[in-house]
Amino acid sequence: MRRYQKILALTLVGTGAFMLPSTLPVQAATVQAGEVQAGAAIHGLQKVTAVTRVYGSGEQVAEAILEYPKALLPSAVKPTDFAVSGKEITAVMVNDKPELTNKAQAGRYVILQFAKQNNVYDGDLSKKPGRQARPADDKNGQGTDAPRQSNRKMPDLSLQVQQVRPLTAIDGTTFAPLTVSATAVNEPDLERFQQYEYTDKEVGATIPYNLYLPQNYDPKKKYPLLFFVADASANINAIKTPLFQGNGATIWASDSEQAKHECIILALQYTADLVDKIGMMTTDENVWTPGLTLVTNLLHDVIERYSVDKNRIYGTGQSQGGMANIAISDKYPDLFAAQWLVACQWNVEEMAAMKDKKLWITVCEGDTKAFPGMNAATALWESLGSKVARNKTFWDSHASITEINANVKDMTAANAPINYSVFAGGNHMYTWSFAYDIEAIRDWLFQQRKDGQPHSLLAKALQDAGLAAYNAGDYEQALAKFTAANNKGHMKAPRYIGLCYEHGYGVTANTKEAAKWYAIAAERGDITGTYYLGRLYETGNGVPQDYHKALTLYQKAAQRGDIIAAPDMAALGHMYENGLGVEKNLQKAQEWYTKASISE
User: Fold this and answer.
1) How confident is the model over 528-548, as pLDDT tens digits?
2) How far apart are CA 385 and CA 415, in angstroms?
3) Does residue 125 come out as left (phi exceeding 0), alpha (psi in the -120 to 50 range) or beta?
4) 484 CB contacts (<8 Å, ≥6 apart)?
5) What is the DSSP secondary-structure string of 259-291?
6) Which of 115, 141, 112 is nearest to 126 (CA)?
7) Is the pLDDT of residue 8 over 90?
8) Residue 558: CA atoms inside 13 Å, Cβ hemisphere, count?
9) pTM of the shown model
10) pLDDT tens-digit series, residues 251-298
11) Does pLDDT of 306 surpass 80?
């Protein structure tokens, strides 16, 4: 008791608690949680638990759970009651459970939320303060291979929370200011994954990997597979490195993402021991390595071991990981439904084999290897007849995610199988500190299928629910269901989203946005969506009036020849009758009108 009285006296004097001055921070007593338990008994902050989240820039402490011996009222606790070195407190919640919930309520727990921080340098690496240039650092501005040994350290998850003002419990007990170090760490993003090892007889090596299985995984059901490979800086002897180095693996396992894109996730770990034993996985020589054999055999083993939908295998990775994706896709052209390549490049001549693949490429203008490399690759694909969508002006990585998602949706409206998005400035490693946060690219990836099937049973259920709400006049609910069905790849969902935007059902009317959704529907083979897009081009609503485009869309849809295509046939009759986008021809007009009437 005397020990507690001494601590209390020191803290009250140090903080001026009797006067409550406005000058902060204060000098509070610093103790470990064990000391608080022993010395302060039930009179103060008893325990601090750090809770992490994985961002593009790596794992960080995102929350702190503070445990008190008696209940506090939410109105009695404010963010200014606490201070945490190096952290910005954005919100505080009082709860009766040691977790964040939708509603605060009286309880023994105080949860502090911290601002997300991206501390990755985003400028010219040659001008980075304290950077040590290497002798062969240039290669005419193209940089060098990643070093064989990574200097990556485990994330610093230490935390000290300072209660800088007295707090009063519901029963009137006063808790004096105190500083307590976290004694426990919760890592929910990492805990979703299980760790395993795969031994490959062909290479004679063992590789560890992280695997996520959806909640309530059912072996009788087929799941998409997301295959992620990290950059070479992750090549250390820690199995969970792909999970904490950035969010290229973990973001797909979040509750919100799994609700849209339920999938299995494979995140392998290419260790420093493997580098020493069989060499780097990828190098600038752009050759097939024993490491690539090992990684590919692991991927095939997981595909066969678990219930994987082989029409929906998606590959992604950054730097080394993107290069591995390119090499594997080149050697096994029928493996991936689509790939997202982040800050990577490969031998341009060899990349000719990828001209018909579905790709999304993300680089920064300041990346001295990936930017010129992908400029050359996309130019090659275009010369070979592939359609590549690209942003004419570089995007701003510091813009709001809403703006970046809108830019992505604009690009997808081009219906190109290859999409090339370049961000202004930046550098190589900075690229993936924000790339995987872009929800619209994640959605695009999961819309792709290798077999061309229009949708899954879940997508159909969502679409049917949307139609029921639509027919009942509940347009906001309908739009939400159509959006979910679209995210699952339903062929007709974009058409109905377009209808909602065109007519202002559950959303502000916007024919330009409607045209984008009709274009997506047309790309998926939806005849009616194709007709609606043609109608907008014919009338000039939401898009520049273009009779030729309208005619082409009507002709494409009319090839079906049945009742579904009847509106397109009638539209073609109208075009020929009035000479819109084609020479006036009453005979052809009559032929199309007749076909439309017969099919109805």
Assistant:
1) 999 999 999 999 999 999 999
2) 15
3) alpha
4) 260, 462, 466
5) HHS--EEEEE---HHHHHHH--S--TT----HH
6) 141
7) no
8) 21
9) 0.70
10) 999 999 999 899 999 999 999 999 999 999 998 888 999 999 999 999
11) yes
- Give the pLDDT score at 557: 82
Helix residue ranges per DSSP H, 364-504: 370-383, 401-412, 439-447, 457-471, 475-487, 493-503
Q: Label residue 35 by pLDDT band (50, 70, 90).
A: very low
pLDDT of residue 223: 94
pLDDT digit string, tens, across residues 167-225: 999 999 999 999 999 999 999 999 999 999 999 999 999 999 999 999 989 998 899 99
Q: Using CA atoms, how far apart are residues 213 and 216, in angstroms rounded to an integer?
A: 8
- Asked if 152 and 237 count as a contact pair (C-beta separation under 8 A), the reply is no
Q: How confident is the model at residue 138 (pLDDT cuts 50, 70, 90)?
A: very low
Pairing label, strands 82-83, 160-163 = antiparallel
Q: Which of 376, 364, 395, 370 is nearest to 124 (CA)?
A: 364
Q: How far apart are CA 272 and CA 369, in angstroms?
A: 24
Specify the pairing of strand 264-268 against strand 388-390.
Answer: unpaired
Q: Quick check: 105 pLDDT over 90?
A: yes
What is the amino acid identity at position 282? T
Of 192, 309, 305, the residue nearest 256 (C-alpha): 192
Q: Which two tokens stand for residue 223?
A: 């799941």
Give backbone dihedrals phi and psi of 182, rounded to 5 degrees, phi first. -65, 135
- Kindly state the average pLDDT of the residues 418-445: 96
SS3 145: coil
Question: Strand, helix or coil at 315?
Answer: strand
d(CA 391, CA 378): 13
Residue 265, phi-psi category: left (phi > 0), alpha (psi -120 to 50), beta (remainder): beta
SS3 assignment, position 330: helix
Task: Return the biggest CA–CA distance within the chain.
Answer: 106
Number of C-alpha atoms within 13 angstroms, CB side, residue 565?
20
Mapped onto helix, strand or coil, the DSSP state of residue 104 is coil
Q: What is the mean pLDDT of residues 318-325?
A: 97
Q: What is the pLDDT of residue 421?
A: 98
> First vs last Cα of the chain: how many Å apart?
91
Nearest residue to 410 (alpha-carbon basis) of 383, 441, 375 = 441
User: What is the overall mean pLDDT for the chain?
Assistant: 88
Name which residue leads in pLDDT, 133 or 38: 133
- Using alpha carbons, select from 598, 427, 429, 444 the residue that is nearest to residue 520: 444
What is the Cβ-side half-sphere exposure of residue 9, based on CA atoms within 13 angstroms?
6
Please name every residue paired with 392 in a beta bridge, in sequence order, or none if there are none.
Answer: none
- The pair of structure tokens assigned to 265 is 């996730």
Coil/strand/helix, residue 41: coil
Bridge partners (DSSP) listed for residue 95: 109
Query: Residue 155 is which amino acid?
Result: P
317 in Cβ contact with 329 (< 8 Å)? no
